[in-house]
Amino acid sequence: MLVAIFAVLIAAGAWTYRLLKAEPAKPGNVHKVTLDLRFTAPIGYEFCTGKSEKGDDRPPEKVAHTNLNLTMRLPGKITGLPADALFGTKEIVFRPGERDVDVYKHLDSGRLIHTHGTIHLENGRPVLNVLLNMGEWPPGRYIVGIGGDPFFGYCTIDFVD
Length: 161
Fold this sequence. Notes:
Elements: H1 2-21, E1 30-36, E2 50-51, E3 57-58, E4 61-64, E5 67-73, E6 77-78, E7 92-93, E8 97-104, E9 111-122, E10 125-133, E11 140-147, E12 152-160
């Protein structure tokens, strides 16, 4: 009987030791994703919905519904916007530097996520890097807004399991 109790104590101690030595769980993995949106034909302020420059219908990009280290290769500028009375401009330019990045369920809904990303130039084209914690939201279609000059540009993305 004493041997059985001693064996149970040793097993319990070994199990406890393994628990204490285990690395703590990390809050969600961050997946690297790159979207090449340079060749999309903008529709108003939305630069990655509708038809591509190749003339084909292009559905929204699909990425994993998780926390993301997202790289987006952006169009140099979005043109053909109606002239703005305040700025007098008809285009959005994505300049290098820190930029606001917002996530919406719909363009007419409230902002779900507000964060910052960084735009840098690669071969003269803007590239955005941003960390998005999409794992906290249910899968589905979302709008990602990127601060440009002088307005935001918007991209529809499907976050799927």
